[in-house]
């Protein structure tokens, strides 16, 4: 080496030496700069906020850069900041600044704050990405299914690992039409799926008019409009008492949810559901209209509702073969129907005479008799040329015991799974409580009265009453006025950890509806929620929810994340919340300052506007930002 160097000097290769030194300097520079934390592109593009009164704090937040392709640090150790940013006086200055118009939040300070903690997001790819529903669009899993006979391909098959991409917006996406106008018209560009217009042309489910879809209230069985149909039902069986006795109902295969939408005027809340199928986007239409709806299917698994929940179940030509598989689908309805509750079946076997319909009817008669359901009405409406039958579920097990044959058998309660979450359908009847169960009080008293399914523990009632008072006060004193939320833009609300449904109950007089989610790892309070006259589902927030992107205006998460992040990664949950939430929508988190500190940088990396109030409420507002919009700058 030395010889060679000497040779180089001897041979006067000065240009080579010069180049060698340049290289050395360059390499040294690279080594030094690599030992610094990575700085992401997004950070550099964020403008400092001139309104912020906070001096750029010296961030002691741990340097966890959670970059998509780098899977370790973010998953196992979400950045728990030891910085006192939020506990310091500057935090309260921010809150005050935020409440006066609700929009002036510290995004600039945020960028300075956690510039090392940015998560770099990517858009979901593919032609279906704008409507991506991870657990229903998992084509790899669906292709591997051995059977589709029982709609297995419409059931949940969640990708593993969870996706971390963000769904793109449809071209021309606009802030949704506000409620109540949205019930009758929505932006075409927000749900640009014209198939249903063609497919159901004669039935006037939905019509395209200029930039809008219009919903005239038609439906296969609603030839004189849905209101007329609803009136006919109550005339047929007055004891139904819409909005008083009958409050919580399920609409199976609901079309564009006009039935549920119309019943809202009568104080009836309807969970409408349908699978994601060739009736393109019907549930997406429903939610865009501001009508409660969810994607689900009666296939091989139980619906994610508790036993004895619904006052009434409705199916108008809903394309479920109730008598298939020894009647398992109908036994599932029996499970979730309240004792004494009604099933309205409006379908051709009830009123047509061709052989096929007659056979279905015969088999339905045998099945319903074996389940002790009684026919309380059967009718044909000349004016609309449709007919329906109304069955009633028994109120006690006496009829089951008096059957000649115990077929279907009674379920063995001890061996049943407690929560209907990925649970196979039963082929048995759930025994009914011995004493004649009382129907809940009339609506609206039902909301506050002691729910029947409240646990028998002595302090349960006290806890329930306390919970009601607590939420009522918190909602009126903090949520409605103190968090800078524009409630008149809020229609579809999800309580991600609903408990007894106290949050929903406190919002009952607002023009919105709440989907109450009881996470599968929390105590099972969903029966209480239904007893109160509210709707809800079970869900595991470590997986994606069965809903289209951009379907909720406000997500509420009270004390949810501590338990949740023990099992899954906060970043994935954030990606899912971003998927569900509409641009302009809110996330409201009530939690400890530790959780809020952990959540903040993740939400900021989504370019949400963040505001923290009283060290325990985090309000995030999603806007129209999508990753590529920035990176391409
Ligand atoms: C992510 O991390 C897990 C566990 O640390 C590892 O098994 C997996 O292969 C990693 N995936 C990628 C894409 O790096
Ligand atoms: C259902 O829950 C009860 C108590 O809550 C428990 O004892 C029982 O083992 C559970 N059954 C199943 C099948 O998980
Ligand atoms: C609140 O939302 C409504 C409905 O979207 C909108 O018309 C109104 O301008 C909003 N108010 C504010 C202060 O942003
Ligand atoms: C967390 O999970 C435990 C055990 O399931 C439960 O008792 C508790 O209520 C849950 N919630 C919180 C906030 O800890």
UniProtKB/TrEMBL annotation:
<comment type="similarity">
    <text>Belongs to the methyltransferase superfamily.</text>
</comment>
<feature type="transmembrane region" description="Helical">
    <location>
        <begin position="14"/>
        <end position="32"/>
    </location>
</feature>
<protein>
    <recommendedName>
        <fullName>Methyltransferase</fullName>
        <ecNumber>2.1.1.-</ecNumber>
    </recommendedName>
</protein>
<keyword id="KW-0735">Signal-anchor</keyword>
<dbReference type="GO" id="GO:0016020">
    <property type="term" value="C:membrane"/>
</dbReference>
<keyword id="KW-0489">Methyltransferase</keyword>
<dbReference type="GO" id="GO:0008168">
    <property type="term" value="F:methyltransferase activity"/>
</dbReference>
<dbReference type="InterPro" id="IPR004159">
    <property type="entry name" value="Put_SAM_MeTrfase"/>
</dbReference>
<feature type="compositionally biased region" description="Low complexity">
    <location>
        <begin position="78"/>
        <end position="92"/>
    </location>
</feature>
<keyword id="KW-0812">Transmembrane</keyword>
<dbReference type="Pfam" id="PF03141">
    <property type="entry name" value="Methyltransf_29"/>
</dbReference>
<keyword id="KW-0325">Glycoprotein</keyword>
<keyword id="KW-0808">Transferase</keyword>
<dbReference type="GO" id="GO:0005802">
    <property type="term" value="C:trans-Golgi network"/>
</dbReference>
<dbReference type="InterPro" id="IPR029063">
    <property type="entry name" value="SAM-dependent_MTases_sf"/>
</dbReference>
<keyword id="KW-0472">Membrane</keyword>
<feature type="region of interest" description="Disordered">
    <location>
        <begin position="43"/>
        <end position="102"/>
    </location>
</feature>
<dbReference type="GO" id="GO:0005768">
    <property type="term" value="C:endosome"/>
</dbReference>
<feature type="compositionally biased region" description="Polar residues">
    <location>
        <begin position="59"/>
        <end position="76"/>
    </location>
</feature>
<keyword id="KW-1133">Transmembrane helix</keyword>
<dbReference type="GO" id="GO:0032259">
    <property type="term" value="P:methylation"/>
</dbReference>
<feature type="compositionally biased region" description="Polar residues">
    <location>
        <begin position="43"/>
        <end position="52"/>
    </location>
</feature>
């Amino acid at each position: 080496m030395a010889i060679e160097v000497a040779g180089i000097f001897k041979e006067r290769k000065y240009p080579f030496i010069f180049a060698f030194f340049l290289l050395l300097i360059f390499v040294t520079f690279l080594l030094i700069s690599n030992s610094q934390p990575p700085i992401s592109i997004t950070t550099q593009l964020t403008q400092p906020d001139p309104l912020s009164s906070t001096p750029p704090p010296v961030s002691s937040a741990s340097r966890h850069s959670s970059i998509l392709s780098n899977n370790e640090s973010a998953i196992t150790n979400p950045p728990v900041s030891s910085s006192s940013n939020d506990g310091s006086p500057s935090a309260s200055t921010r809150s005050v600044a935020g409440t006066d118009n609700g929009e002036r939040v510290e995004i600039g300070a945020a960028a300075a704050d956690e510039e090392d903690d940015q998560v770099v997001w990517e858009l979901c790819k593919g032609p279906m990405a704008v409507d991506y529903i991870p657990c229903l669009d998992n084509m790899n899993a669906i292709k591997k299914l051995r059977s589709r006979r029982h709609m297995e391909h419409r059931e949940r098959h969640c990708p593993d690992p969870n996706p971390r991409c963000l769904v793109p917006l449809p071209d021309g996406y606009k802030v949704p039409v506000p409620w109540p106008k949205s019930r009758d018209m929505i932006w075409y560009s927000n749900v640009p799926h014209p198939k249903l217009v063609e497919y159901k042309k004669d039935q006037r489910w939905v019509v395209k008019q200029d930039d809008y879809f219009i919903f005239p209230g038609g439906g296969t069985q609603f030839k004189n409009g849905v209101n007329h149909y609803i009136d006919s039902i109550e005339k047929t069986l007055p004891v139904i008492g819409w909005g008083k006795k009958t409050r919580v109902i399920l609409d199976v295969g609901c079309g564009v949810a006009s039935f549920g939408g119309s019943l809202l005027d009568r104080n009836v809340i309807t969970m409408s559901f349908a699978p994601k199928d060739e009736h393109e986007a019907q549930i997406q239409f429903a939610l865009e209209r501001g009508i409660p709806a969810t994607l689900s299917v009666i296939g091989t698994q139980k619906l994610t509702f508790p036993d004895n929940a619904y006052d009434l179940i409705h199916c108008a030509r809903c394309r479920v073969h109730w008598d298939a598989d020894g009647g398992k689908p109908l036994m599932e309805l029996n499970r979730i129907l309240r004792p004494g509750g009604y099933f309205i079946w409006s379908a051709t076997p009830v009123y047509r005479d061709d052989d096929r319909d007659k056979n279905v009817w015969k088999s339905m008669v045998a099945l319903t008799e074996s389940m002790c359901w009684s026919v309380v009405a059967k009718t044909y409406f000349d004016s609309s040329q449709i007919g329906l039958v109304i069955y009633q579920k028994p109120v006690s097990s006496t009829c089951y015991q008096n059957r000649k044959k115990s077929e279907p058998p009674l379920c063995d309660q001890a061996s049943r799974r407690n929560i209907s979450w990925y649970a196979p359908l039963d082929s048995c009847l759930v025994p009914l409580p011995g004493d004649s169960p009382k129907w809940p009080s009339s609506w609206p008293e039902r909301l506050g009265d002691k729910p029947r399914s409240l646990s028998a523990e002595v302090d349960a009632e006290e806890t329930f009453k306390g919970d009601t008072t607590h939420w009522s006060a918190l909602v009126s004193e903090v949520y409605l006025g103190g968090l800078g939320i524009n409630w008149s833009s809020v229609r579809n609300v999800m309580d991600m950890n609903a408990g007894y449904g106290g949050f929903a109950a406190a919002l009952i007089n607002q023009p919105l509806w709440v989907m109450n989610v009881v996470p599968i790892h929390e105590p099972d309070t969903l029966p209480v929620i239904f007893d109160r006259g509210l709707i809800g589902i079970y869900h595991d927030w470590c997986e994606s929810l069965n809903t289209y992107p951009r379907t909720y205006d406000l997500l509420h998460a009270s004390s949810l994340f501590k338990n949740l992040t023990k099992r899954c990664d906060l970043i994935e949950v954030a990606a899912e919340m971003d998927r569900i939430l509409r641009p302009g929508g809110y996330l409201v988190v009530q939690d400890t300052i530790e959780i809020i500190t952990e959540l903040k940088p993740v939400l900021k990396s989504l370019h949400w506007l963040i505001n923290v109030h009283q060290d325990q409420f985090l309000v995030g507002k999603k806007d129209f930002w999508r990753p590529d919009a920035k990176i391409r700058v």
